[in-house]
Design brief:
Bact_polysacc_biosynth/exp; 463 residues; cell membrane; alpha/beta; LPS_length_determ_N
């Protein structure tokens, strides 16, 4: 898989074969999410709207939102509600400007009632504080200047009226022009006073109104406890999937026949099929660790392809007999071989046992090449390989399954055979297949044996 593209079928196969451990990890993630939710008590959020009449610029609205969340407003709201910790409430109150000169003030609390009270009270205190800012001034002289200007304008208007009355009451052009200019001047002054009144901040800010009470929240504010639980389960599930894919991507196990033959330094004699079934549990594999692995479902490889469908028992026996025939041609007399199987490779162990059985049940002793070799099987641990010393064997036959061992492990196995005086005469690769039901008609395997033995003499390459 290290050289293959990760496809959806690979992910589906991994989820199907590792569903137990994935479900357990998802449940564990849900428990972690539930525990995390206990650290964050439920929160409820609601908003109150404040209308700002008139024309407001964007920066002015931003200023008003800052005022609404200021410490002065929040402290006053906390004091009115009788709540302690005004500084803590500042983190639970927010304000933002909406369309139509509306400021929405949001409050968050641990109950719907408290959230509603907080939002309403902050909105009211904001309106009151804004009105106070607009109506009050810290400079008495500055506050008196607009009124003095109005009085000056009134006196000027009266003086203009007196000048107009004192002008030549005749109908000369000069007198008419003078009275007209004085009237225009009086009108201009009156318009200026009106604009000054309209621009008075106190007149505008005092019109701020709260647009009704805040609605009582019906549900918790995110993230809710359910969201914590779902997020925890999803995160753990995705991490498990990514971890499986990463481990398979970085795996250095050899999967192709050329890689296996290069690591062992020998020729491939053939491939044999083993019907897919649950691996046999040996006595030494019944410890607590193995029971936990079986419970979690991680004792079966997931990164191997789905076994292909093979022929019936007769077809599988053909492959074993062809391997025995090639061994008979390749190994000199006495034809005795040591079958080396990596310990823990259940597929290879079953294939080697079947190969030994086929060699013992030789049905063609009258052939020109003699009987099949005598095979003796031994399981060798790959962590510290130790092969029995050479006795009467003419060499070693290595039987293993593809995708189970790395190049370094197989090289160590070959070195162990060389140290014991055994030459690796060949390699047999075993693979799992899905067995078909037995044939309803046709020659029996015993009847086909002589012909298969002859065919084995004619073919020398791997099956």
């Amino acid at each position: 898989m290290s050289d293959d593209t990760i496809r959806l079928v690979t992910i589906g196969r991994m989820i199907r074969r590792r569903r137990r451990v994935l479900i357990i990890l998802a449940v564990l993630g849900a428990l972690v999410g539930y525990g995390t939710s206990l650290l964050f008590p439920p929160r409820y959020t609601t908003s109150a709207a404040v209308l700002l009449p008139g024309a407001w610029e964007e920066r002015e609205l931003l200023t008003q939102t800052q005022i609404a969340t200021s410490s002065v407003v929040i402290d006053r709201a906390a004091a009115t509600l009788g709540w302690s910790g005004g500084g803590e409430l500042r983190g639970r109150v927010s304000a933002k400007a909406a369309d139509g000169n509306i400021i929405k003030i949001s409050g968050t609390a641990d109950t719907p009632e408290r959230a509603q009270q907080l939002s309403d009270q902050v909105a009211q205190q904001f309106v009151a504080f804004a009105a106070r800012i607009a109506g009050d001034s810290t400079d008495p002289e500055a506050a008196a200047r607009p009124e003095e200007l109005r009085q000056l304008v009134v006196r000027t208007s009266r003086r203009i009226t007196e000048l107009a009355d004192a002008a030549d009451p005749g109908s000369s052009v000069e007198s008419v022009q003078t009275r007209t200019e004085l009237a225009k001047l009086r009108t201009t002054l009156q318009e200026a006073v009106n604009k000054l009144d309209q621009a008075d901040p106190a007149a505008v800010k005092a019109d701020m109104v709260v647009m009704g009470p805040a609605a009582r929240p019906e549900g918790e504010a995110p993230p809710t406890r359910t969201q914590f639980i779902v997020a925890g389960a999803l995160v753990f599930f995705l991490l498990a999937v990514v971890g499986h894919l990463t481990a398979a991507r970085m795996s250095r196990r050899l999967r192709t026949e050329p890689e296996i033959t290069a690591a062992l330094g020998s020729a491939l004699l053939g491939t044999v099929d083993v019907p897919g079934e649950r691996p046999v549990r040996r006595a030494e594999g019944r410890g607590t660790r193995d029971r936990i692995r079986r419970l979690l479902g991680v004792d079966v490889r997931w990164d191997v392809p789905t076994p292909r469908t093979s022929g019936d028992e007769a077809d599988r026996r053909i492959r074993y007999r062809r391997v025995c025939a090639r061994l008979r041609e390749q190994v000199p007399a006495p034809r005795r071989l040591l079958v080396v199987v990596p310990d823990g490779d259940e597929i290879a162990l079953r294939a080697a046992g079947r190969l030994v059985t086929e060699a013992e049940s030789d049905s063609s002793p009258s052939s020109s090449s003699g009987e099949y070799p005598v095979l003796r099987m031994v399981a060798v641990p790959v962590s510290r390989p130790l092969v029995p010393d050479r006795d009467t064997e003419a060499g070693a036959l290595v039987v293993l399954s593809a995708g189970s061992w790395t190049a370094a492990e197989l090289a160590g196995l070959a070195e162990a055979c060389a140290d014991a005086g055994h030459e690796v005469v060949g390699i047999v690769v075993a693979g799992t297949v899905r067995a078909r039901p037995p044939r309803s008609a046709g020659p029996s395997p015993d009847e086909a044996a002589p012909a298969l033995a002859v065919r084995g003499h004619a073919t020398g390459g791997p099956v």
